[in-house]
Design goal:
Layout lengths: L1 H15 L5 H12 L4 H7 L9 H37 L18 H15 L3 E2 L5 E3 H4 L24 E3 L5 H9 L4 E10 L10 E11 L4 H16 L5 E8 L2 E10 L16 E10 L1 H6 L8 E8 H9 L6 H4 L2 H4 L5
The chain binds phenylalanine.
């Protein structure tokens, strides 16, 4: 019997010698300790052992069984440990590796100018109101003192969606919508996209405007001029001058066009200002009595001024961009230059 035991011990040692995985270790373990394993078989044979030898034999077998179990469990621990280490090694992350950089975005020059304008005018007490891009004829034209067949409708080549609906040609439509609901005194700023059937180096079928409207008692053209001087200095620099030129818009009377001194040549005359020393930046004027009337505001008590500027135009001047198409192409080589 002792020989058998020695033989089994030898076999156990032999068969686990090269085991590296816990799975094959488990299989080998079954061969010895499983129900039909070698050690279990030996134990079953105890029946044939004479009773007086059983206690000592039993002791030996139990010792063998215990030895084998311990052998397997310590091996199991070792192998599991090695396997875990291997797994960690494979899944290792090198935290010192430089990360892939996500491309960094930048605000579009239009957005920068829009935000700057909003911040300048909010500082002067303006509220922001945005009207719809699809307007009806009434808000875009008729209420702005431009009835059907008025020749001034030709000033703005319009995209009509139906007899009555159109893509708004000017943010001035927002003036009416705002005044219908708010009574003076009021100060409102209305940014947004506008559409005109127009396309060349300085015009695009879609562009953005910033509208301003102030209505109160005793508002004059001087207030408009003073406020625009302040705005021009803030956006283009303190050395900038402004001037008003007579113009025509159906919804303002008198109407003006506002020029700023050319930032490129300081007013001497250059290619940018076409030799005049001045650059036109916006249209403005005193709100026409007819417009106040249709909004239910008494023009004998209140007066107001309005102005409207092209945001792209301001961006082109401010950042020296010489073709409007650059503002619509989304070329990242241009946009990257505006990273804060
Ligand atoms: N709406 C005019 C335009 O688009 C600009 C303007 C606004 C003029 C407000 C006067 C007053 O050309």
């Amino acid at each position: 019997m002792q020989d058998k035991i020695n033989e089994i011990e030898r076999q156990v040692d032999e068969s686990v010698k090269d085991v590296t995985s816990s799975k094959s270790l488990q299989e080998i373990k079954l061969k010895f300790l499983g129900k039909t394993g070698k050690i279990s078989e030996l134990m079953k044979n105890m029946r044939d052992v004479p009773p007086e030898q059983r206690p000592s034999m039993g002791k030996l077998l139990n010792a063998l069984r215990q030895w084998t179990e311990e052998k397997f469990s310590s091996l199991e621990a070792l192998i599991k440990d090695a396997e875990l280490k291997k797994k960690y090694e494979i899944e290792k992350i090198d935290v010192t590796l430089p990360a892939k950089r996500a491309p960094e975005g930048a605000y579009h020059p239009n957005t920068l100018v829009r935000n700057e304008l909003i911040s300048i005018f909010s500082g002067m007490g303006f509220e922001v109101f945005e009207g719809p891009e699809i307007e009806n004829d009434y808000y875009n034209f008729t209420a702005l003192n431009t009835p059907a067949d008025h020749p001034a409708r030709d000033m703005q080549d319009t995209f009509y969606l139906s007899q009555d609906l159109l893509l708004r040609t000017q943010t001035s439509a927002g003036q009416i919508r705002y005044m219908e609901n708010k009574k003076p005194p009021l100060k409102v700023l209305s940014p947004g996209k506008v559409y005109r059937s127009d396309d060349d180096a300085t015009h695009s079928p879609m562009f953005s405007q910033m509208e301003g409207l102030v209505v109160d008692k005793g508002i004059t053209l001087c207030d408009l001029k003073g406020m625009l001087d302040e705005f021009a200095k803030k956006i283009f620099g303190t050395e900038i001058k402004t001037r008003l030129r007579p113009s025509y818009f159906p919804f303002t009377e008198p109407s003006v066009e506002v020029d700023v001194s050319c930032s490129e040549c300081g007013g001497k005359g250059c290619r940018l200002c076409k030799g005049t020393g001045w650059i036109e930046v916006l249209g403005a004027g005193m709100v026409n009595r007819r417009v106040l009337e249709v909004c239910g505001v008494d023009p004998d008590i209140y007066s107001g001024f309005a102005f409207g500027m092209g945001i792209e135009r301001i961006a082109m001047l401010k950042y020296g961009i010489n073709n409007m198409k650059f503002l619509f192409e989304g070329d990242t080589r241009l946009l990257k230059q505006f990273k804060a």
